[in-house]
Amino acid sequence: MTRMTGWQAIVRGLEAEDVGPVFGLPGSPGQFYDQLYDSETLRSVLVRHETSGVFMAMAWARLTNRPAVAFGSPGPGVANLVPGVLEAFSGCTPMIVLGVRASTQTEGMGAFQETDQLGMMKPITKWAATIERTDRAQWYLRRAVSLATSGQPGPVYLEFPADLGTAEADFPDYELAPRDVRPAPDPEAIGRAADLVMSAQRPLIVCGGGAVLAGAGPALTALIDRHGIPFQTTPAGRGVVGESHPLACGLVGLYRTTFPRQLYEESDLLITVGSRMEEFQSGAFSFFPDGARFVQIDIEPFELGRNWLPDVAIQSDARLALEALDAALVERGYVADAARVVSVQERRAAAIEDAITDARAEALPLPGRAIVRAINEAFGVNTIMVKENGGADLWSYFWPYYQSFDANSVVPPAEQTAMGLGVCGAIAAKMARPDAQVVCTTGDGAFQMAMHELPTAVQERAPVTWVVLNDGAFGWPRWGQTHSHDGRYIATEFDPPVDVVAVAHASGCEGWRVSQPEELAELLTRARQANAEGKPVVIDVPVDQEDKHEEFLAFHHVRRKG
């Protein structure tokens, strides 16, 4: 037994669990952060705002599949964690969120910064709890790690009352939590799914974020290579397999382009893996292929049949389900449709060539398609794309204008699409994968929500490139206003516009503005070199306000009709 404080026990447990960095802002020094001072393995990352810390923890967890830690001091500190925790909960991201509560001696008496923090966190976490006894700190931490990483992953929240976290107790050696527990599929359900594949002419697999979190990429690759089944992804599923794969056929829903839409609509069997197929992925739940059968694979039973009713529902870890389906098809003697494989690959190649031609631009403001295509060409392979979700930077979602060549090379926002996540997440992405290049595409609106973290990139020696697609406004709300209210718009324009290059320079980063179309490629190449030399870069690119893909317009037309 070792005598130590509650927070010391938490720190020792986090060290043993091999979690990621601690992102946050310290409060009272005796609460948690003083114990981090003596840690040899836990990295403390000082952010400029608590929400940024959760965004960074989310990006770290996405790329490492290890839970990172976010911390908030009492009251407003914990409240500032809420937008990021909401996003992490929506994205099923494993995370340990820590807070401090009012002392047990003064709870309910209006203590300084006292508020109902559990009430804030319970609706947006897998588990939220107050550590009620100092000597039970290890139990609470083990429970938190196990819940965050097992089944459908997600954030958990633990708080220590101020007096109990600094109180001492005797603790045994820390025992590791059971983690990454994954259910295997029902063999009978797998058999029925395999029978549907056997009878289908045009099966299609759609992978969501659950496939990425499960590490299902190798299993998916084996299945599609052996059986010739094309696959698409949601934004969260992007990166399950690199899009250089010859059967990678783009994204679904709002994020589709023409060939992916055609392939999706032609399918007669849809197999979704680890995706809710929520409103933007499913076209307001209206984009189901006519007459198709449906197999739904998800680790969380709550999601099965939540929107579309499956012919076969399989509650399982994505990797284990794909491995089992592959084996069942081999057992049944499934033979790939060679003619369909050739046709899909030819149409895919034609779509890529069309996008290259379509992305050419000779004047400012530049279309978004030209910008993301130029990023692809300048940075190439071994590049992590960290995304925002706005009217202009949405082009980084549109395959094949931007292609994520490698597996595990995308950090997207989740379904809440909290602005600023990508700007902050890029910093943590570089910390998690220092060997990779990191680029963030962001509109000027989202950039302004998180540009206070540029000094954090310098501080943490995280050289990334932010490409700001600048239309001088909150572009998506303005587009929605003008196209549904006879050209009227209000409260969306930035007047005067923010000089993002000046912000970059003031933060210790390089900053350049594109003033001629031909400068874009040159500046992206310079940015890549500057990153290699340890310097973060901001590139400001004026964009066409009305530049929208035709499928984006069609999606909103259907959505409005619905």
Can you describe this structure?
- The protein has about 550 residues and is of the alpha/beta class.
- The chain folds into three domains: about 1-170, Rossmann fold (3-Layer(aba) Sandwich); about 185-345, Rossmann fold (3-Layer(aba) Sandwich), CATH 3.40.50; about 360-560, Rossmann fold.
- The strands form four sheets. The chain has a six-stranded parallel beta sheet, sandwiched between helices.
- Helix 10 runs parallel beside helix 13 and helix 15 (about 370-380) packs across helix 21.
- The longest helix is centred in the middle third of the chain and has 21 residues, at about 340-360.
- The chain starts with a strand and ends with a helix.
- The model has no long low-confidence stretch (mean pLDDT about 95).
Per DSSP E runs of 2 or more residues, the count of β-strands stands at 20
Question: What do we call the CATH topology of the largest domain?
Answer: Rossmann fold
Tally of DSSP helical segments: 22
Overall shape: it is globular
SSE arrangement:
Layout: E1 2-5, H1 6-17, E2 22-24, H2 33-36, E3 44-46, H3 50-64, E4 68-72, H4 76-90, E5 95-101, H5 117-121, E6 127-130, H6 137-149, E7 155-161, H7 162-166, E8 168-171, H8 187-199, E9 203-207, H9 209-213, H10 217-227, E10 231-233, E11 248-251, H11 258-266, E12 269-273, H12 279-282, E13 293-298, E14 312-315, H13 318-331, H14 338-358, H15 368-379, E15 383-387, E16 410-411, H16 421-432, E17 437-443, H17 444-450, H18 454-459, E18 465-470, H19 475-484, H20 500-506, E19 510-513, H21 519-532, E20 537-542, H22 550-561
Parallel strand pairs: 2-3, 2-4, 4-5, 5-7, 6-7, 9-10, 9-12, 10-11, 12-13, 13-14, 15-16, 15-17, 17-18, 18-20, 19-20
Antiparallel strand pairs: 1-8
Helix pairs in contact: 1-6, 3-4, 3-16, 8-13, 10-13, 15-21
